[in-house]
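Render this sequence as a predicted structure.
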Amino acid sequence: MDAFPNQLTPSASCLHLVDGAIAINSAFPLVLRPERKVDIILSFDYSWENPFKGLQLTEQYCAERKINFPKIDLSNVDVEHDLKECYMFVDEENPHVPIVLHFPLVNDTFREFKSPGLKRQSPEEKSYGDFNIYTKDSPYKTLRFTYTLEDFNRLVDVNHYNVCNNKETILKAYRLAMTRKQEQKK
């Protein structure tokens, strides 16, 4: 495609692209094609509004099309006041349904730890981790497209930390997926 861009639409002088997120705000439909046989999906949703909306819309999309997707049960989730770093959604009944690990944009334990198990010590380290993501003047609002170097680094660092801090949850999902695969081979 990159080598021959004019061959995509030889009769048109320009190529029009549409953001696939217009309906769901996620690329789930591309991943969920049956021939892909997806076992685990790592979902990162940094929407300013409900960080589960994309998952809920995907659940609805999949139900309407009879595509395997886990139920997004948020009955024990306090979206407004107590977001966690990682959520795991699993269909215990159907091993063909992919496991979804969902990482919303949240600064929870990163405030106290610069890496998993390593507490912040100096005032500079504590200050670096002590920031709110969801404030009125937040630099992380969805339609903000530029960041200061510090804001960018914090965004990258908090998300890297959140993934690393949930290593056991990721490994649990991986082990479950492997167990399911082995059971299907029997």
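Summary. The mean pLDDT is 88. The two ends are 42 Å apart (CA to CA).
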